[in-house]
TrEMBL record:
It comes from the Eukaryota. GO terms for biological process: lipid droplet formation; lipid metabolic process. One of its GO terms (cellular component) is endoplasmic reticulum membrane. Pfam families: Seipin. It is a multi-pass membrane protein. The keyword Membrane applies. The keyword Signal applies. It is found in: Endoplasmic reticulum membrane. Residues 1-15 form the signal peptide. This is Seipin. Keywords: Endoplasmic reticulum, Lipid metabolism, Membrane, Signal, Transmembrane, Transmembrane helix.
Length: 326
């Protein structure tokens, strides 16, 4: 910004210098034509018929004027580059602000930690209660993860060992309750799942093939079970969800870890912005740059026209003023 102001000041000074030089040259040449002699200090021969003096004077003034005009063109080009750079950065800033405010979070994941009761008299293979987890749906404890009106796919990924207990468990239910800031249940969902079936022969062959990895500790006998809890979840604008209760309705289940995944299902403009980020950025910045350029051009033309088109103001004199003038 300061560079652009400096360039503008330099251009204004050069214009005044060019005008002064042109006026000086005109006056000197007019004196020469009227009197037939050169002004003092030109360094030429004093004589009415000597053509060398006016030629040197004309050459000196021409070189000076051309040099000043060249400097003026250079400064004008620098000013144009500064203006284009400022417009470009403004267009990029406008597009970035629009993208940040319009595009919601595409993917969100958080670990799920289950807890259960241990104050009951049960056998070693049974839990005292269903494994339950309380998951926050706020980023940094204050920002909403999901945007109003945007459909989301919510799924739970369970990392389960291929233990005899899980294989004998069969199907079990996974239930999810979303609650608002007032503690009210917004919505709920329940889905069933189980380990994928693998025959004894397939398990034996897999174990024999992966024995080196099992011994090295780089592989485990486990499965990743994904449970889709919501296919198109939409946030309620009047009661947004701030957390969820996830419950596995089985007292025999065994899990290593669990993660909750929230994926946004984009449509329309958001789909284009998310799947084609480079193309959308180029189009957005180009549109903003074109709009700002047209706006700046109209402002410049209005300023130029205002200097040349000055409507005369007609002043109507009253009879009393006319008598005073007389």
């Amino acid at each position: 910004m300061f560079l652009c102001l400096f360039v503008c000041a330099a251009i204004h000074a050069l214009r005044e210098e060019v005008g002064r030089r042109g006026t000086t040259f005109t006056a000197r040449y007019q004196i020469k034509m009227d009197t037939g002699t050169e002004p003092m200090g030109t360094g030429g021969h004093h004589g009415s018929g000597d053509p060398v003096g006016p030629a040197l004077l004309w050459l000196q003034d021409t070189v000076t004027t051309v040099t000043l005009q060249a400097r003026q063109r250079v400064l004008q080009g620098a000013l144009l580059l500064c203006a284009l750079g400022l417009l470009l950065w403004t267009a990029i800033f406008l597009y970035g602000s629009f993208y940040y405010s319009y595009m919601p979070l595409a993917t969100y994941s958080t670990p799920v930690h289950y807890y259960y009761r241990t104050d009951c008299d049960s056998s070693a293979s049974l839990l005292c209660s269903f494994p339950t987890a309380n998951v926050s749906l706020l980023r940094n404890g204050k920002n909403q993860v999901m945007t109003y009106g945007q459909p989301y796919r919510i799924s739970l990924e369970l990392e389960m060992p291929e233990s005899p207990a899980n294989q004998e468990l069969g199907m079990f239910m996974v239930k999810m309750f979303c609650y608002s800031g007032q503690g009210q249940t917004v919505t709920s969902s329940a889905r069933s799942t189980m380990l994928r079936y693998r025959s004894g022969l397939l398990q034996t062959l897999g174990t024999l093939f992966l024995i080196p990895f099992f011994l090295a500790g780089t592989a485990d006998q486990k499965q990743l079970v994904e449970v889709e809890l919501f296919s198109e979840y939409r946030e309620d604008s009047y009661a947004p969800s701030i957390g969820a209760i996830i419950e596995i309705q089985s007292q025999r289940v065994q899990i290593y870890s669990a993660n909750l995944y929230i994926h946004a299902h984009f449509t329309g403009i958001r789909y284009f912005l998310y799947n084609f980020p480079t193309l959308s950025a180029v189009m957005g910045v180009a549109s903003n740059l074109s709009f700002l350029s047209v706006l700046l051009l109209f402002s410049y033309l209005r300023l130029i026209w205002g200097r040349f088109i000055n409507p005369q103001k007609v002043r109507v004199e009253s009879p009393l003023e006319q008598e005073n003038m007389v």
